[in-house]
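Aim 2 progress. For Fumarylacetoacetate hydrolase family protein, the working sequence is reproduced below.
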Amino acid sequence: MIANGPEAPFALARYRDGEEVRLGLVAGNRIRPLDEEDLGAADLNGFLAAGDWDRLERLVDADGPWRPLAEVTLTAPVEPRHVLQAGANYRTHVIQLIMAGIAKADRDVPRDELRARAEAAMDARAASGRAIIFLGLPGVVVGDDEPLVLPDYSDEHDWELELAAVVGREAFRVSPEDALAHVAGYTIVNDITTRDRVFPGGAGEIGADWFRSKNAPGFLPTGPFLVPARFLDPSDARVVLELNGEVMQDATTAELIYDVAAIISDASQTTRLFPGDLILTGSPAGNGQHWGRFLKDGDVMTGRITMLGEQVVRCVAETRS
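Predicted structure tokens for this construct:
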């Protein structure tokens, strides 16, 4: 159970109420249910499309059916139609990846030259003006109330903590200058990846297999809170992941090659983004592949992002009957 809400003055969450999932308003260590009258909309995504956060803010200090946050079981705070994921989007992370690739092909290259070549390649990609964007399956989105089941077909399941933007007003072919006006809020996502399925044997130069490497059940732990966009500066948010209490990732979004506005604008040139859609912004350096250590049965990942609270994911090995 989660005892405290995010650092933001208030946020949205979804929680289990018997067999149903209800939408709630979180303020501090309290939560209250929200109905259509409270939202001014029929459901969560309808509310995000309208973006009237002021009506919820007025409820923060109002009497009502508040209860301790620790008494409820939270689940994923969003119901996206689309999940778009930006890859290789943190400067230090990308440099590490490129250096490793060059060194694998030629072990005699001096480290200073490796870094210089990696930085030049990274800068060239950044100058192209196009982020690497691929798709995840909405059905993979879960709350951290569910354990992460590690499929038994691999021992290389990896973590990637990310800041995720949640779309408010529909966006189609929007400019970078207007893109943030289409963001309703932000949440935490851990984009789990099976490394040995990214580049399957025999694929040659065909490309990466993002479907098989990223879309096992529960591979997108999300939330537990959806924080209004007004409370977070997406250009300077700290992203920290601990594995069993040891810090593995620690960076800020100031390192992003393509910022939130650029990713949303770029994606919207191709497809419509709908209320509730998740836009992942990439993960910083420090994943398991870098450390030479992948997820195992019993591992506990704790992710924190500025203003968004804490996400705890517990790993269990797959068992087949």
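Residues 248 and 268 are 33 Å apart (CA to CA). This observation will guide construct design in the next reporting period.
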